[in-house]
Amino acid sequence: MSYKTLVGLEIHVELMTERKMFCNCKNEFGSMPNTNVCPVCLGLPGALPVMDKQAVKYAIMAGIAFNCEIDNTIIMDRKSYFYPDLTKGYQISQSDFPLCKGGFLEITLKEGTKKIRLERIHIEEDTGKQIHTDHGTTLLDFNRSGVPLIEIVTKPDINSAEEARLFLEKLKNTIKYIGISDVKMEEGSLRCDVNINVVDEDKGIKSNISEIKNLNSFKSVVKAIEYEQERHIALLESGKNTDKETRRFNELTGETILMRKKFQASDYRYQFEADLSKIKLSDDWIKEIESTMPELPDQKKKRFIEQYNITEYDASVLTQSKELSFFFEELVSLIEDSKLAANWVMTDVMRRLNEEDKEIAKLNLSAQSLAELLNYVKSGKINNNTAKKVLREMLETNKTASFIIEKNGLIQISDEDELEKIIDEVIKENQQSIEDFKNGKDRALGFLMGQIMKKTKGKANPNTANKILIDKINGN
User: Fold this and answer.
1) What is the structure's pLDDT at 76?
2) Taking all residues of the chain, what is their mean pLDDT, rounded to a whole number?
């Protein structure tokens, strides 16, 4: 049988504003519980909300980045439902008139580029936070209540867990580039809900949509989609169907668990938020925001290819995060060699980042310190192998390249007279290898170069030594 998986994502992104969405409380993670609160974000009687201009600007920036149509009129609604951390009994959100409509984001697959369409991006306020203790009690922290959010809703264009991962990584990277959120999933700045169903393409039967709520890592998103995909297919194959339901993902078991039957839109009793009047946005302000937008990942990738003459793959890796792209460009400016810079960042630096599961900002290495090392390589004072060893020591000890090189006497031997004496010794001690090379055994040359490196403790300039060795073998 042939099955097709349909996945739509709802991504909640906390905006990095100074104040909350509708009051003057600090928008700050990590404060003492229930200290950044006031009558407005606690929903006390008579408190009136006032919309934050910076939050609206950031939402518009997201809409521009994701190719949306920006609505000139902001209309807010009340979304009513009961939850312990929702003090007002309703959430101020948007229903029929989202700020940003349509849009798309492109991801790169093995078979080419795929466009994932967006349904909408709307603005809303966050709820409080429940903290479940080991003693079976639940504590409530309302510092997060009223923090500005955008909700990004995709169309069901995603057909696999891998596509979902690629989409989320591209989305996270883009949001970080434009600077509207720190997108830290571990702090709740980026949260994701998954809507999934499966189509039996032979019979034309669809399973009902399941929603998996509040996934807090891309790994959980992937595992939840894979689990639900198998569950839906198994039900269809047994002649059953799924219920429309909301589920949560258990990270310990790798399974989804029923939370409740899925809400319908009517259950939320959407109504116009009378405490906030309609807001008209001028075309000039939207154009001003668009004109000051930072360079987006795809734009930077294209520029890297053209400006630095590197491959599309290298440009994709080097622009995968804002910080890495800045690191690369600073390195190029310091050593004036884009290919050398790209090679070292793509290999040794990226290997270290992957081994330690870190971002470049957390690595014990600056662009200036790596540039110092690479300038030793460019000038021929040390070779690549020595430089790799020096880099390892730099990362482990936080010492400079010059300190490590001088301390260990690693400067390369490039003096031809000095190298000639050493090569004469190697030739005298390895006559059989000389004959082997003359008889067409190319490996013999590698052996001889190895002996030269052994005598010089790896400090011989390989290009200079190789030339002298061949000239001597050929009788020049």
Assistant:
1) 97
2) 92
Greatest Cα pair distance, the chain, in angstroms, is 99
> Taking residues 149-176, what's their average pLDDT?
97
d(CA 9, CA 148): 19
Mean pLDDT of 48-67: 97
Predicted pLDDT of residue 445: 84
- Triad 390, 392, 394: Cα angle to 5°: 70
CB 50 within 8 A of CB 76: no
pTM of the predicted protein model: 0.85
Q: H-type helices in 179-259, by residue range?
A: 218-237
Any bridge partners for residue 190, and if so which? 13
Any bridge partners for residue 154, and if so which?
A: 118
Structure tokens at 452: 């030269």
For the chain, helix (H) and strand (E) counts, in that order, are 16, 18
Q: Kindly list the domain boundaries of the chain, sorted by start residue.
A: 3-285, 295-408, 416-473
Task: Compute how many other C-beta atoms are within 10 angstroms of the C-beta atom of residue 23.
Answer: 22
**From 1.10.10.410, 2.40.50.140, 3.90.380.10, 3.40.50.1820, which CATH number describes the 416-473 domain?**
1.10.10.410
* In the block, residue with structure tokens 């014990």: 364
Are 216 and 185 contacting, i.e. CB atoms less than 8 angstroms apart?
yes
Q: Residues 46-59: what's their mean pLDDT?
A: 96
Alpha carbon of residue 81 to chain centroid: 33
* Amino acid making up residue 5: T
- The two structure tokens encoding residue 425: 């010794």
303 Cβ contact list (under 8 Å, min separation 6):
295
* Residue 262: predicted pLDDT: 63
